[in-house]
Amino acid sequence: MPATVGSATFTPAIVAGAGSSQLTISTLTTASGGTYPLTVSATSGATTHTSAITLTVRARDFTISAGPASVTVTRGQTATYTVTVAPLNGFAGTVTLSVGGAPGGSVASWSGNPVTAPGGATLRIRTTTSTPRGTFTLKLTGKSGALSHQTSTTIVVR
């Protein structure tokens, strides 16, 4: 078992005569996703038996989503969105959120950012009288270490 993947233990560690032992594999939260060939060996005196097994580690990851899909505001009003971070395969990290594509003359602010998965944050886009009218796509990005995911939503300014 590669030390960068995790550890393996047998319970009981020794089987006297006939019997069995339970193999428990614990993977690290930092283990890279992938397939790892392992060899299980049993020895009694000069006799050794082996068995090949495969450990598949699914990469820990997250998803982000935002709602509602679109908000319509009059200039000078604020649009509010909920951004949700959901863990995949045991992800338990912190995700930092950012927004791009907000119209000129508006101010974006966050509540609850960064987010510990699972969890959510609130994004507010405050428009002003100088914010141009139109439909704008907001690109929401969530980053945690090397992981980065995007989703989008829309603001319509009238």
Describe this structure in words.
The structure is a single chain. The chain is an all-beta fold. The chain has two domains: 52 residues, no CATH class; 97 residues, Immunoglobulin-like (Sandwich), CATH 2.60.40. Helix content is 0%, strand content 63%. It has no helices and 13 strands. The strands form four sheets. Strands 6-13-12-8-10 form a five-stranded mixed beta sheet, with no helix packed on it. It has a four-stranded antiparallel beta sheet with strand order 5-7-11-9, with no helix packed on it. It has a two-stranded antiparallel ribbon with strand order 1-2. It is rod-shaped, with a radius of gyration of 25 Å.
CATH architecture verdict of the largest domain: Sandwich
Distance between the termini: 60 Å
Indicate the proportion of strand residues. Answer: over 45%
Rg is: 25 Å
Query: How do the strands of the widest beta sheet line up side by side?
Result: 6-13-12-8-10
**Tally of distinct domains:** 2
Question: Which percent range fits the helix content?
Answer: under 10%
Low-confidence stretches: none
